[in-house]
Structures are given as structure tokens and as C-alpha cells.
Amino acid sequence: MNPTTAKPPPDRLYGRARGHKLRPRQERLLEVTLPRLALAEVLPSGPLWLEVGFGGGEHALAQVRAHPEATLIACEVFENGICSLLSALVPEGDEALAPLPPNLRLWTDDARVLLRTLPDASLDRLFLLFPDPWPKARHAKRRFVHPATLPLLARVLKPGATWRVASDDPTYQAWVRDVMAEQTSFDTEEPATARPDGWPSTRYEAKALRAGRQPLYWVFRRR
User: Fold this and answer.
1) Catalytic residue from among 132, 169, 178, 197
2) Which residues span the domain enclosing 124?
3) Based on the structure, what is the number of domains in the chain?
4) How confident is the model at residue 21 (pLDDT cuts 50, 70, 90)?
5) Residue 215 region by backbone torsions, left for phi larger than 0, else alpha for psi between -120 and 50, else beta
6) Does residue 69 lie in a domain region?
7) Residue 180 and residue 176: Cα distance in Å, rounded?
8) Whole-model pTM above 0.85?
């Protein structure tokens, strides 16, 4: 499918927001812990990073622990994934009082809603790691890497800011190549075939490797 003829993205990119029924511990995490990590109206000072679709939260937690100088806004709509990250942060029974990383904020709606509200040139780094590939051609409009989304990303990323993208899906890999070949806002390079230094692993990467799929790792730089 030619990305230049793709339909515009729908109002939301994601499918369902909940999988199996939540346990009482997970319900309490959403009720008590999640609001403590909500994004404030005033953005923090210092480097600002954004992860779109943090999955189980492994990458997000590794980044905030390794880079206390940067604030990471981690976006995820799937409640089970949100609970996975929250459960790794706080002991059971201490959901309301356990210390939380001061440089982590959570956003639980479509990431594009947040991106539209961010000031120009406000992001220093963007992560999109192993997103849902929406492999069927009729679902291409739901892919985050999309010609219609690139101007929005170009607006909020600072000149020289980096956008990391990783995928193990051949259809999505080809799509990323085609989309990025047609744009002029980002410098592009050939993707790495091994996870670069400084890229914390995720459960989705591990699953892909166990299945024998070859991930690709891109770094796009805002011009």
C-alpha cells in the first residue's frame, strides 16, 4: 500500500482499552496511584521525553531510572498495561503513599490528543517501540507512523531531537521505510538490526526474538 494514498487517521488509533477483568489490586492502582502520576497543566522544566504506547512499562521505567535529568511522559490506553507499570512501582497495600519517580508522568488517552496541546519545539526525544502494526491494508490509517501525523511530530520536536522507532513486523517495517522516504522534516538512516546501546528491552521485543522475528531499530532526527 502506498502511504501517500492512505486514508487519514481516525479519531483514535487504538482498539480496546481493557483485556481481562481487572483484579482488586489493579482497580486500586487505577483509582489511587494513577492520579498521582497525572500530567500537570504546566510542563516541568528540563528535557522532556515522550513514549507512545508503553505496553508493560519496562522501557519507561528503565528510562526514568537511568535519566533522572529528563521527565518522561508515558502514554498508554490499555488498562492492563497501565496496571503492569503501576504494580512495578508500588508495593501492594501502599498504593496511596509509596514514593513515585518525580520524573514520570502518565497519559492514558490517545497520544495525539496530548501532542496537539504541547507547545512548539517542546520535546527532546520521542519513543515508539513495537507498536501495534495494524497489518491489514484497510487498517493502515491506524498506524502511528503516518504521513498525516508527521507534521504534528515535526512541530513538537525540537531541532535535533530524536525519534526512536522499533518494530518486528515486516509490514510495518516496510511502511516506516516508505513513509519516512517521502518526508522532509527528519533526517533518516538505515535501521539497526540489533538493539542499540541505551535502548532498554521490552517484553514485546523478547517475544519477537523468541518467535524468530527480526526487529529493526530506527533513529530519526528532527531537522
Assistant:
1) 132
2) 119-223
3) 1
4) confident
5) beta
6) no
7) 6
8) yes
Nearest CA-CA partner of 104 in 156, 66, 159: 66
Query: Tell me, what amino acid is at 112?
Result: R
CATH number for the domain including 197? 3.40.50.150
Average pLDDT over residues 123-148: 95
Annotation marks residue 178 as catalytic: no
Distances (CA, A) of 147 to 92, 100, 190: 43, 37, 19
Q: What count of other Cβ atoms lies within 10 Å of the Cβ of residue 18?
A: 11
Question: Which run of H or E residues covers position 153?
Answer: helix 150-156
Residue 44, pLDDT score:
87
Distance of CA 209 to the CA centre of its chain: 20
Return the half-sphere exposure (C-beta side, CA atoms, 13 A cut-off) of residue 2. Answer: 3
Instruction: Give residues with Cβ within 8 angstroms of 88, minimum separation 6.
Output: 57, 61
User: Which amino acid, one-letter code, is at 170?
Assistant: P
What does the block give as the cell for 128?
515508539
Structure-block grid coordinates of residue 151: 507534521
